[in-house]
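Recap from last week: sequence in, structure out.
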Amino acid sequence: MVKKITKTNPNLVNLIKELMEKYHEEDACIWKDVAKRLQRSNRRSAEVNLSNINRFSSADDYILIPGKVLSNGDLENKVNIAALNFSTRAQEKIEQAGGKCLSINELMDSNPKGSNIKIME
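Predicted structure tokens:
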């Protein structure tokens, strides 16, 4: 018997619900994809280092991380990153490079269609 995983964090549950609502309103599949990634078990949650973000992004990109951003590595580009969580050192490094740290809600409100956003895991 397979046990269904249910999230207990009320903020995360609300975020997943809002993502699905935005998907239905705007018909933007990116929000459904992010909601499905956030529903996965905690073992499979994304943890991305700044070195990986630096390697696969260019200046003024919007990057969405359905998990946590970690501070390993340096960031050379001015990048806007939306994530579930940031380590404090990663947030400092992003802001030093001229980028922004956004919540997923802020990115969803500023770009409802979800265009030109890269998802990294």
